[in-house]
User: What shape does this take?
Amino acid sequence: MFLPKETFIGVSEELSRSEHAYVLPPFVQPDHVLGFLEAINNLTGTVDPMYLGDLLGEKIDLLPHVIDVASHLGLIEVLENGNVRLTQLGKEIADGDVQRVKERMRRIIDKIEPFRTIIKVLRRKKRITVEEFMEIAERFYPYNTTKAVKTILEWGAFAELFRMSPDDEYVFITQQS
Assistant: This one.
C-alpha cells in the first residue's frame, strides 16, 4: 500500500539527496555500538578489531557493521593500519552516564538513514501512523523491513527521539531535537 504523496511533502527530495547516505544495517542495535565503544575504551582507546570479536562475544560477521555504524556516527576513526580509535565524542559516550549518552546520541543519530528522514518527517508532523513509518522503513529496507523496524524503534527509544504509541498505531516524536 502506498500512502498519498502529501504524506511525504518535502521528504522525497530528502530521500533523493540521501540516496548515497549511510543506511543503518537492520540488525545493529544500540547495545552493539555502545558495547563496542566500551570495549575499546577499556583497552586504552585504540585497538585492533580482530581481538574485539572474541571479547564482545558477538558473531564475527556483525563486527564490521558495528565498526561502520560507529565510524559514520563519528564515534571512532579507523586508522591506516586497520586499528580503531575512539574519537573525543566516542570517549565521552563510553565514559558517560546513561542520560549523557542518550543526549549525545540524539545529536548525532540523524547522520545516518533512516533516522535523518524519520526525524525530518516527525519534526514537521509530530506523529505519523505506523503505516507511514513502515513505508519510510520499506524505502530503506525493502527485504528486511520487519527486523529493521524493530531496530529503528530501539534506536529511537534509546535516544529518546521517537517511539511507538501504547496502542501501536502511531510513532511520535519525544524530543524536539
Observations:
- Strands lie at 46-47, 76-78, 84-86, 127-129, 162-164, 170-173.
- Residues 30-107 form a domain with the Arc Repressor Mutant, subunit A fold (CATH 1.10.10.10).
